[in-house]
Design goal:
Layout: E1 2-6, E2 11-14, H1 26-43
Antiparallel strand pairs: 1-2
Length: 66
Amino acid sequence: MGTVDLATSWVTLEVRWWVDTERDPAYTVTAELLTGIKKAFVASGIDMPFETQVSLLHNQTEEGGA
């Protein structure tokens, strides 16, 4: 695991793993891995932000009309 990007609003991490697909399907291992990472973040007090977007449209105020 390594840090790929340190931006003002996010941190991008890169995680690589190997899967023995004869033993376990890759999607099962991937789901378990992501769940484990999320649980480790929660246990460490690291919040996962929700994406927020604000759209401001020109002249869309009560005074400006619709």
